[in-house]
Every structure is written in C-alpha cells, then in structure tokens.
TrEMBL record:
Record organism: Clostridium beijerinckii
Identification of the protein by name: Transcriptional regulator with XRE-family HTH domain
HTH cro/C1-type domain residues: 29-72
InterPro entries with a match to the protein in the record: Cro/C1-type_HTH (IPR001387)
Superkingdom, natural source: Bacteria
C-alpha cells in the first residue's frame, strides 16, 4: 500500500533526483538535494509530491542543472507554464541511435525542396486562399515534426555531450 502511494506521487522531479542519485550521493536524500538546489527540504518535498500548482521557474532550472536533466525544463514548459502549454511540444530523450532514425524518417518522408517550392507557391502572391490552407497546414505539421526532433537532439546533446565534455576539461 505504501509503495502505491509513493508511485502515485512519483513526479518527474522525484524521478530525476533519483536518477541523479546514482551518480551523486547527495541526491539520495531530500536534504542533500535541497541544499544543492537552494530550496528548503519542505519545498523540494512538495515539488516531488506534486503539491505545487506551478513550481518556480528558477527552481526547475536549478533542478535541471543539478540533476543533469534538461528534459525537466521541457516538461515544465509543456505541462506547467501557461504560455508553454499553448506553444511548446513535448520532446523525448531517447538513445542517439533511435533519435537518429526518427530524424531520418522525418527527413526521408518529406522533400525539403518540395516544402520550399510549395511554400513559395502558396505565399508568393501575398494571399492564402482556402484551397491553399490544407497544403500550408501540411507544411506547418512537417516543420513542427522537424522542430520536435531537433529539440530532442538538442536535449540529448545537453544531457550527454555537453556535461561529458565539461568533465574532460
């Protein structure tokens, strides 16, 4: 019964701290993590239990940095930020091999030159007619898909390469 309650409240923030604790002992406890992030134990505990309606942005940024979990910022923007919910797309950090295949699938499934030509054709006269709207929406959908994959690659790089290179210095 206890483990079900914990799993129910196992937020992305708690999961990120637990993953970070595999590499940094201080994140094994709320006390150590709260000290590293610069928030009180109660605040961090409430973040992890999902008791805040909206976490302070600076706390999310500090957690993302401390835990080497840039995906926390994307999650926050897509799920907790009022503006982000309307404008951001959730991204997934997966293996670089899987991500590469996903990117290639998007790029192979469409011709950039075809998109460019269609966009020029649709917008050249400065007007968009009703019959051009479906083609324009298709272009936007394809560009959105490319954008999401690009953001996934960016987060993967931040998580695995940038911090790797920092430790080599």
């Amino acid at each position: 019964m206890n483990s079900k309650a914990i799993n129910k409240n196992d937020t992305i923030y708690r999961k990120a701290r637990k993953r970070a604790s595999e590499f940094n002992e201080k994140f094994k406890s709320i006390e150590g993590a709260s000290e590293a992030i610069g928030v009180s134990k109660d605040q961090l505990s409430n973040y992890e239990l999902g008791l805040y309606k909206q976490l302070p942005v600076d706390s999310v940024v500090r957690m993302a940095d401390a835990y080497n979990a840039p995906e926390l910022m994307n999650y926050y923007c897509c799920n907790e930020c009022v503006i982000g919910k309307l404008t951001m797309s959730p991204v997934e950090i997966c293996s670089i091999e899987r991500l590469t295949i996903q990117i290639l699938a998007v790029l192979n499934g469409t011709s950039i030159n075809k998109i460019k030509e269609s966009l020029i054709d649709i917008t050249a006269d400065g007007k968009i007619t009703k019959d051009e709207l479906p083609r324009l929406q298709e272009i936007i959908n394809t560009l959105d898909e490319i954008s999401v994959k690009s953001q996934s690659l960016k987060l993967w790089t931040e998580k695995y390469l940038i911090n790797c290179c920092r430790s080599d210095e």
